[in-house]
Amino acid sequence: MTKLTQLQRKHTKLVVGLMSGTSLDGIDAALVRISGSGASARIKLLAFDTYKFPKGFRELVLKNSLPGSGTVDTIARLNIIYAHFFADAVKRIVRKARVALSSIDLIGSHGQTIHHLPNPHRMFGKTVRATLQISDPSTIAQLTGITTIGDFRAADMAVGGQGAPLAPYFDFALCRSKSKNRILLNLGGIANFTILPKNCSPRQVTAFDTGPANMVIDALTRKFYEKKFDPNGTLALRGRVIPSLLNWMMSHPFFKRKPPKSTGREEFGAAFINRLLTRAKGAHKADILATATEFTAYAVYSQYKKFIAQRMKVDELLVSGGGAYNRAIMKSLRKHFAPAAVNTIEHIGISSDAKEAMIFALLANETVVENPSNIPSVTGALKQVVLGKICLA
Ligand SMILES: Nc1ncnc2c1ncn2[C@@H]1O[C@H](COP(=O)(O)OP(=O)(O)O)[C@@H](O)[C@H]1O
Ligand SMILES: [Mg+2]
């Protein structure tokens, strides 16, 4: 029997999901046990950790994520260095769980997005949507000896989708409710939410990026306080929101664009921060940070009001990602969304830190049995497709 046939026939698998998000705070590794697939899939988290990058690495990746400062030779090498780091993360999480590496059936790796250009662009008579996630999956497979699936976004883009978001497959499968209208909100570098009306079918699911989550906040805390992020939102809670600055941020054209849509550092990275700092000249640091923090929460709410509220009145928000630790964001979400309940996703038994890595374990498990896992109503794709590239060890 071939390796793939064996994998397809195995009902319960040990899978490692790997994710490195736009925050560039480290590699998330989740070891999970998955039984079944499709509508009957069950997933259990066995171990999770985030592994930091070596000093200077984040800056090198950022530099090579921007047009004009990235160089092809460095990007080609980063693609491989990342795969080494991802393979190390697999070995470490497996050791942490006291499981043998040889007992792992599958790896699902998101990789690191270094550029995301989801909007159609005409070139040489062709329509091009492009995205680049590095951390070569063939290399991960060879370094670990485990079948690895990577590059999940390309197939969806090839059929006209944005290649994002991919979380809704997981959200629909494991987080929908029979009695409550839910919003699942992930606050990474970018914020994205999945709308799950009670008792919904896959076609009724909506999801899109709502704007930055921690991207602007982190940039400001690095600049003002030489901290990687605002610990639990304490710095923002000391400041006061500057309404004119908030209005300027909300005037970004991204917020008017109709979903499906996705965004990234291309729109809310260094160039946006520079414009923001010029606008904010003379204001107190804490007030600028408080405004950027309110911007994150208010953008989520305003996108809900603009595109969702007419169809669905939310009962419950379930928040995941590092931003769930930011008390200023959570406080503001509670204020805007009242009387809806705002909780972290732990409320339904899922780890908010591990969720994104678990998604790619679940998607890999679907791909191996040839189940499509994009949701066309969400990505804008013309049809359902099987996602990812399968690399045999
Ligand atoms: N204790 C904390 N307090 C405030 N913010 C936090 C805390 N822990 C993490 N974060 C924020 O979460 C970000 C990382 O979130 P994560 O979900 O890993 O995002 P990504 O998917 O972009 O990597 C950090 O950059 C930081 O802004
Ligand atoms: Mg992260």
What features would you describe in this structure?
- With 393 residues, the protein is an alpha/beta fold.
- A hairpin with a 6-residue loop joins strand 1 and strand 2 (27-35).
- The protein has 15 helices and 12 strands.
- It is globular.
- The model has no long low-confidence stretch (mean pLDDT 97).
- Helix 3 packs parallel to helix 4 (137-144), helix 7 (215-225) packs antiparallel against helix 12 (285-307) and helix 12 runs parallel beside helix 13.
- It has 2 domains: 3-164 and 354-391, 2-Layer Sandwich (Nucleotidyltransferase, domain 5), CATH 3.30.420; 167-348, 2-Layer Sandwich (Nucleotidyltransferase, domain 5), CATH 3.30.420.40.
- The strands form 2 sheets. Strands 1, 2, 3, 4, 5, 6 and 12 form a 7-stranded mixed sheet that branches.
- The chain has helices at 3-9, 57-63, 72-96, 137-144, 154-158, 167-175, 215-225, 234-237, 243-250, 265-268, 270-279, 285-307, 327-337, 355-368, 376-379; strands at residues 12-20, 27-35, 42-51, 106-123, 126-134, 148-150, 182-187, 190-196, 206-212, 316-320, 341-344, 389-391.
- The protein binds adenosine-5'-diphosphate (ADP) and magnesium ion (MG).
- Adenosine-5'-diphosphate binds next to helix 7.
What is shown here, in short?
This protein has helices at 3-9, 57-63, 72-96, 137-144, 154-158, 167-175, 215-225, 234-237, 243-250, 265-268, 270-279, 285-307, 327-337, 355-368, 376-379; strands at residues 12-20, 27-35, 42-51, 106-123, 126-134, 148-150, 182-187, 190-196, 206-212, 316-320, 341-344, 389-391.
